[in-house]
Design goal:
Elements (H helix, E strand, L loop, with lengths): L2 E6 L8 E2 L9 E6 L5 E9 L12 E2 L10 E4 L6 E10 L2 E7 L2
Antiparallel strand pairs: 1-8, 2-7, 3-6, 3-8, 4-5, 4-7
């Protein structure tokens, strides 16, 4: 199962993790981990912008993974083209992992 992870250590948006829409129907899992010794507040954001054209400018907060300050997980109910992590506060690191079934 392909898994992609990004880590933030500052209050900035992470790199974008693209979603393979050809495999979307098999499920997309989203796991956000705040490692031991780290603290922070974050939102997971999704876009429907075409990632192949330009940097996405339209981002929405995930329905469940917003304003969180603990590790959490969820999934995608609707297709999106990309996912990123946006920290509003962080000391240490926050990790976003996206898993798509094959």
């Amino acid at each position: 199962m392909p898994a992609h992870s990004v880590t933030v250590t500052t209050t900035t948006a992470s790199d974008i993790i693209p979603v393979d829409l050809n495999r979307f129907r098999y499920g997309v899992g989203i796991i956000v981990t705040i490692p031991d010794g780290s603290v922070g507040t974050y939102d997971v954001q999704v876009t429907g912008d075409d990632l192949g054209v330009a940097a996405p400018t339209h981002w929405n907060k995930h329905d469940v993974l917003q304003n969180k300050s603990v590790s959490a997980n969820s999934n995608l109910a609707y297709p999106v083209t990309g996912i990123r992590l946006k920290a509003s506060a962080v000391s240490g690191s926050i990790v976003l992992s996206v898993v798509q079934a094959t």
